[in-house]
């Protein structure tokens, strides 16, 4: 039994998300979100016992200021001395890390080395890491990489069909993302179905604002839809997903756009938002599509069709299909999307159980296919923070 609590930190360039978890029960005792870091009106919001409290960070509006404020809040609730270790989410561990690791100077140098692969995120993680080392003196820190789970992909899945020297010189290849979620969800799926994960060929769709899909066989990632960056693959909230790379020269020549403008457009103004012209939020898209808004209807159909197409291709990567798994905000809640995706997959022998599909929402896991289906489709809520807490406790010896 872990007596100590785990602090999980997820630092972005202008934000810091934190949670204090009981590693045994998974209970979140306190959570926080610092926003607008490095701007004069930075602030942090704490949630404790269902109550929210906002604290101004303008005196020290950076990651260190946010971690200091968090320490003060923990002290106010007598939680500071109960923290046993800190777990940090890190976006890219490149090819250096295939599992979570206890932080030392070498690991910090490794995360720095991976900065070209996550130029916005890895520097922010390092700021959070250094602030945690200074403010929570003496506590072990563990880093958990989004890319680590995908390091098992075979070479033919992660290599791009471009001159090979680009991989050798610059590390240009598929790395994938959402790895911590996939690791958690593949374990939970096996547990839920009462099977050994080594015996399951799974296709797992993590559908949130960012969305990706992964083939898992033998408990290992075989292929995934996100690539060098999270831009590749499915239609997402604001990202285009797969697109002909020639759009860069086409738009440069015809729309006079620069590389950075096109990159920004593909990452921030595309996907559900770009197609519908309305919103990146799936709920809004579903509501407006139901009212007949043509852009919302098209956005929804494209999201569903691309996802179904990818499920087909990921069954190849998994060597067949025993379980199709839906997770993430959309996967866990949108019965409409799940039903319509399964509507494309009758040829794989998957048939929806309407009633079960409606019940599997708001954190409820459940099989959503009929008993005569050739494979199961199942909804499994993800919990990346808990996975980070588990790794952190294990590697810290708690
Ligand atoms: P993030 O990638 O930011 O972690 P989440 O996993 O929280 O995102 O997922 C956010 C997405 O989930 C949003 O598009 C939101 O509209 C969608 N979502 C949440 N609840 C529902 C619901 N009941 N029906 C459809 N979509 C939902």
Automatic annotation (TrEMBL):
Q: Which GO terms describe its biological process?
A: acetate metabolic process; acetyl-CoA biosynthetic process
- Principal localisation: cytoplasm
Catalytic residues of the enzyme: 146
Q: What class of enzyme is it?
A: transferase
- Where Mg(2+) binds, per the record, is at 10, 384
Q: Does the keyword Protease apply?
A: no
One GO cellular component term of this record is: cytosol
Q: Where in the cell is it found?
A: Cytoplasm
Cofactor stoichiometry and binding? Mg(2+). Can also accept Mn(2+).
An example Pfam family from this entry, by short name, is Acetate_kinase
Residues reported in the UniProt entry to bind ATP: 17, 206-210, 281-283, 329-333
For the keyword Acetylation, the answer is no
Instruction: Identify the metabolic or biological route this protein is part of.
Output: Metabolic intermediate biosynthesis; acetyl-CoA biosynthesis; acetyl-CoA from acetate: step 1/2
Q: Which residues bind substrate?
A: 89
Domain of life assignment: Bacteria
Q: Which cofactor does it need?
A: Mg(2+); Mn(2+)
The chemistry this enzyme catalyses reads: acetate + ATP = acetyl phosphate + ADP
Report the sequence similarity comment from the record: Belongs to the acetokinase family.
Q: HAMAP family in the record, alphabetically?
A: Acetate_kinase (MF_00020)
Entry function:
Catalyzes the formation of acetyl phosphate from acetate and ATP. Can also catalyze the reverse reaction.
User: This chain belongs to which protein, by name?
Assistant: Acetate kinase
Species of origin reads Neisseria perflava
